[in-house]
Amino acid sequence: MDKLNLICVDDQREVLSAVLQDLQPLSQWLNIEDCESAYEVLDLMDELDAEGEMIALVISDHVMPGKTGVELLTDISKDSRFSRTRKVLLTGQATHTDTINAINSAGIDRYFEKPWQASQLVECVRNLVTKYIFDMGLDYSQYHEHLDQSVVFDHLR
C-alpha cells in the first residue's frame, strides 16, 4: 500500500511533538512529516511532488515567524499541483479576522483551537484524507479499513 503524505507544521517543537503523538495511530497508512516553518513545508512539498508523492493534508499552526499559517495555506491553495490537498488550521492565537481569511483565501477544511482533542483531530484527518482519496480517484480499497466509513458509504451510494 502506498502511503499518502500528511504534513504538520508548528514552530514550537513541543506543540509539534504533541500533534505527532496524537496522530501516531494513523502512521500505519499515512506518512506523517513534520516541519517547523512554512518555508520548510513548501520545500518539502516541492520535493515530494518531484518524487511523484501525493500530499493529502497539511495541518498548520497560524502564528509562525516569516509566514503565517494562513499565508502558507493560501499559497498551497493557489498551487495547482496541490489543489486537492486538504488543509487544517490548528492554532490558539488566530483572531476572528485571521480565521475568516483562512476560510476565504486559504480554503481551509477545518479549524481547531488549541488545546485540541486528540480524538477529534484523528477523526478529522481520517475524514479529510478519505475525501482526498475519492477526489483524486485513487483506489480506496487498499486503505479501506482505515477510512472514514461514512464518507465511503456516501461516495458509493
From TrEMBL:
SMART domains: REC
List of residues that carry 4-aspartylphosphate: 61
Keyword Nucleotide-binding carried by entry: no
Record PROSITE patterns: RESPONSE_REGULATORY (PS50110)
InterPro entries, A to Z: Bact_response_regulator (IPR050595), CheY-like_superfamily (IPR011006), Sig_transdc_resp-reg_receiver (IPR001789)
Record key words, sorted: Phosphoprotein
Pfam families found in the cross-reference section: Response_reg
Any one GO biological process: phosphorelay signal transduction system
Residues in Response regulatory domain copies: 5-129
Protein name according to UniProt: Chemotaxis protein CheY
Source organism (scientific name): Vibrio galatheae
